[in-house]
Specification:
The chain is of the alpha/beta class. Helices cover about 45% and strands about 20% of the residues. The longest helix is centred in the middle third of the chain and has 17 residues, at about 100-120.
Length: about 230
């Protein structure tokens, strides 16, 4: 049975960025192992998405400062955690760490380091420029602070430049339930997600019914690429 490592910075990222993809993979008989760098193990979310296993390295998520996750040590710990697993694909993050946050960038760096250690290719989760610009426009309309400067906004990839557009519509109910569960966490990302979940399901669904991945290192297996529309 092919096994996928879903590597994430924090619990809230699991359903938000890859929940629909994980649900589809498990529905098709793939084994998914979720590992987060920070916080508690996302056990309940893993169960909702059908993942076989959930682990955490338990580092502190120190936002707006240098990441407290050491790349070499974290890589070694993940290899040890997965010593009895045969990993066929790694879900990682793009080079900006999806959201320009240091610990999220660590996911990209650790994902790259794991390619040779685990003998598996990577694909890199991303938020599209179109989605971020839409959010920035809403923030400006509401006179809220946009969390990215112009240079950072320009570094988000267009959806047309990302290799894999995976529809999550059929699995959105599962993704939605996992997002609600993740919003109960104590870290800042979970709290932000909880605020977003106060919007109607239809509104949230219109924004997150697709999950995007760029190519990483190595060649992604056909059973993953076939999920993309």
């Amino acid at each position: 049975m092919p096994t996928v490592l879903a590597l994430h910075a924090a619990t809230a990222d699991v359903p938000l960025l890859t929940g629909g993809t994980i649900a589809r993979l498990t529905d098709e008989g793939r084994r998914v192992v979720i590992v987060t760098l920070t916080g508690d193990a996302p056990t309940a979310i893993a169960q909702q998405l059908g993942a076989a296993r959930a682990e955490t390295l338990g580092y502190e998520l120190a936002l707006e400062s240098e990441s407290k996750v050491p790349v070499a040590e974290a890589t070694d710990r993940i290899v040890e955690l997965l010593k009895d697993e045969e990993i066929d694909l790694i879900l990682s993050y793009d080079k900006i760490g999806v959201v320009h946050e240091p610990t999220h960038v660590r996911v990209h760096e650790i994902g790259n380091a794991l390619v040779s250690r685990l003998g598996a290719p990577t694909v890199e989760a991303a938020l599209t420029r179109e989605l971020i610009n839409k959010g920035a426009g809403v923030a400006k309309t509401l006179r809220k602070t946009v969390p990215f400067n112009e240079e950072q906004l320009s570094q988000f990839a267009s959806k047309d430049d990302l290799a894999y557009d995976i529809p999550a519509k059929k699995s959105f109910d599962t993704k939605w339930d996992a997002m609600k569960a993740a919003g109960g966490g104590a870290d800042r990302f979970s709290q932000l997600l909880a605020r977003g979940m106060k919007f109607p399901k239809m509104v949230v669904g219109s924004l997150f019914q697709h999950e995007y991945f760029g190519t990483g290192q190595g060649e992604a297996p056909e059973w993953f690429t076939s999920l993309a529309k």
